[in-house]
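User: Let's play a game. I give you a shape written as tokens, and you guess the letters that built it. Ready? Here's round one.
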């Protein structure tokens, strides 16, 4: 039920802020703010995306989780800045502050449990071999023969 209330309240808050803040700033200043914040958001996403691409191409090995979490939150900040509205812009700008990201990561890390991929037994392993058989190419007298007997 609270999710429905949030979905309903968020746009109402944004519209209210547009009316109040936009009325104080004026039409052109409000439109300029929306365009500039969206441009900043796109720039942040491109910057973080290119950084992640360089990290992958560089073969940096196992990437530490905290820098990845910071990058993800900066990208979320960019998305919030792209969305039109003063409240989303406020949240996006707050997420750009390093101490806010660090506190949010610590809060989320205390609620998340990481599980490894270690297997505790051999019961779920299947040892098998396969062989590709192409029916039309591998027939001799109506009988399909394995591809390793094929004479090329």
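Assistant: Ready! My guess for every position:
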């Amino acid at each position: 039920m609270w999710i429905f209330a949030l979905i309903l309240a968020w746009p109402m808050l944004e519209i209210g802020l547009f009316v109040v803040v936009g009325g104080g700033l004026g039409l052109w200043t409000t439109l300029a703010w929306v365009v500039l914040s969206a441009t900043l958001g796109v720039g942040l996403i491109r910057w973080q995306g290119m950084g992640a691409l360089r990290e992958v191409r560089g073969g940096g090995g196992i990437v530490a989780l905290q820098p990845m979490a910071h990058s993800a939150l900066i990208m979320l900040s960019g998305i919030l800045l792209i969305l039109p509205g003063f409240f989303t812009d406020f949240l996006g700008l707050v997420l750009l502050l390093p101490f806010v990201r660090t506190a949010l990561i610590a809060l989320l890390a205390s609620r998340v449990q990481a599980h490894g991929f270690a297997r505790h037994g051999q019961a779920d392993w299947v040892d098998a071999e396969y062989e590709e058989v192409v029916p039309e190419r591998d027939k001799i007298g109506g009988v399909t023969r394995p591809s390793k007997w094929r004479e090329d």
